[in-house]
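=== RUN LOG ===
request id: a7f3
mode: sequence -> structure
chains: 1
length: 271
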Amino acid sequence: MAQPIVKYTLSKQGRIPEWLSKDSRAFAGEHSISGNKDGYIPRYESPQSRIMLGIAAGEPDPDGTPDDYIGKIASKSDLQAYLIGIGTVLGYKTTTLTLTGIQTAVTTGLATAWNADPYAGGLTTTTSAKRTMVGVGTTAILSGSLATKIVTNIVTMSGSSFSTVTNAISVDPASTSTITGYSTNAVTTTSGIANEGSGITTSIVTTTTTAYNYTDIQTSSTTSKSETTTDGVITRTDTVVTSENTNYETSYDYDAEATRLWDIYEAVNGL
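=== RESULT ===
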């Protein structure tokens, strides 16, 4: 019996359908996307709101199918068209992590200088010029948000007090960030009883949230240590290599992905 590529959801109990293929080569849970449209009453309710691709254990029954069966994909061209449709909605890109910067710092000196506490000098550091490279595509941009300012106003019968907490946006040293917007939210809470001695205390917490974008760059360092001994004198050298890796985005290869999935389908079906 043929084992086709199908679109499906989880069962009403939130389980993977038992009718999916048990073949070790088969796939399931691929290319998940919401089956609902924004602004409309949901067609699919939780936990059945996401539609996925998998391989079924057999053909759908023409007399009826379970509610977690959505449909069948009959050809490779239909599969590629489906992938293009959901990839356009989800913004599919191919992301490649690329080495884009490297720099080496070498510190050397006698072991006695390394071990001195407090440090009294004697170490020499030489730093190489930073080498930079460029990847293929465009630098990936990520987004984030942070509560950058929190102002608390406490109001009692005897007066009011303010306190402010600020938080700085922090990204990788090699990354650049851009502010994209601000939002403010105030929450008021009241406690106490008016007729009692302490009276009513009102707390007003105003939070400013900053939205920002930043380039997807990751900096890392590795340190290697070596020692040499000459006439009983130990010299230690530490080498620190700092690398910058950048994620670059290129167009998603829908043809390659359709071929990958279709090849699996053909292998499972012995075609």
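=== NOTES ===
The chain has three domains: 5-92+252-268, 97-137+217-250, 143-214.
The longest strand covers residues 233-251.
=== END ===
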